[in-house]
Amino acid sequence: MTQTRFYPIGTPGEPWGEKERDEWRATQPQRRSYATDVLPRVEALANRFEVVPYGALDYAGEQYPLFALRSTPHDPALPTALVTGGVHGYETSGVMGALEFLETRAADYAGRANLVVVPCVSPWGYERINRWNYDAIDPNRNFRADSPAAECRALIALVAGQPGPFLMHIDLHETTDSDESEFRPALSARDGENYEPDTIPDGFYLVDDGEAPQPAFQQAIIAAVARVTHIAPADAQGNIIGSPVVAPGVIEYPASKAAMCASVTAARFKTTTEVYPDSPRATPEQCNAAQVAAVCAGLDYALENA
């Protein structure tokens, strides 16, 4: 059922213009620090990985350097795996899980895979705890060559410059209660559309690429994460966030058609994780651990089935 829901910015039924975007930006104060939370951990890893600057964002004079970490030396005989976090800056365990993987488990794959890890794709969104970037654009629907999002263009260029093909890409995300209370209503207001309410699943799930699904790969990750935190059940309609559940804890989106981050490589094995940090059954530590478990299980499966 579709219902009209008031959002405090804009006129119902009319898409936002620059005036409304300015009003929205005024409601987005800095709430945490990329320079304090993320960059020192990146710098501390420089003795174990190559720190690769791959661009910088400049939003109204606020500067955000972008970094990837890469295992070194690159071995052309080994497959390459990409891990991305913080495409939606507010999804905290995506950023922290990527860093925790580098700090605690990445060494296990030395001599087995070339790793490229991008812990925080959208630092402006990280600081504002927001899904969008400065221009009220959702990066995870804009990974295409002509993207209006600077975050997306920078990551696409980074990936294009990596030697050798990718075997795996895992993109670390969360689904939060604020998706329903703030971000979906904001999206409807921004686009001048009615808001259609949905439910938030309680638990971890995965989004497979519906254009090239790998069901066994997804289930290997689900099995590993289930040992850390609970897996989201389907709702009464057999869906998770409006998409049919194709296997326990797994739905599918067409990654390229939706211009999702999971489409930035031609990797055979790819997935988008979705942690639920607002569950009373999960702590922040469990959420981070679930992301690490997902990365490791994905790598293990991909390397065994390359």
Please give a handful of descriptors for the protein shown.
306 residues, alpha/beta, Aminopeptidase, eight-stranded mixed sheet, two-stranded antiparallel sheet, globular
Blueprint (SSEs and pairs):
Elements: H1 18-26, H2 34-37, H3 39-44, E1 50-59, E2 62-70, E3 80-85, H4 92-104, E4 114-118, H5 123-128, H6 150-160, E5 166-174, H7 177-191, E6 205-209, H8 215-225, E7 239-240, E8 243-244, E9 250-253, E10 269-275, H9 284-304
Parallel strand pairs: 3-4, 3-5, 5-10, 6-9
Antiparallel strand pairs: 1-2, 2-4, 6-10, 7-8
Helix pairs in contact: 4-9, 8-9
Compact summary:
By secondary structure, this protein is α/β, with parallel strands linked by helices.
Could you characterize what this model shows?
There is one protein chain. The chain has 306 residues and is of the alpha/beta class. It has one domain (18-304): Zn peptidases (Aminopeptidase), CATH 3.40.630.10. It has helices spanning 18-26, 34-37, 39-44, 92-104, 123-128, 150-160, 177-191, 215-225, 284-304; strands at 50-59, 62-70, 80-85, 114-118, 166-174, 205-209, 239-240, 243-244, 250-253, 269-275. A hairpin with a 2-residue loop joins strand 7 (239-240) and strand 8 (243-244). The longest helix is centred in the last third of the chain and has 21 residues, at 284-304.
CATH topology, by name, is Aminopeptidase
- Proportion of strand residues: 15-25%
Give helix and strand order, one letter per element, not per position.
HHHEEEHEHHEHEHEEEEH
CATH class: Alpha Beta
* Helicity range: 25-40%
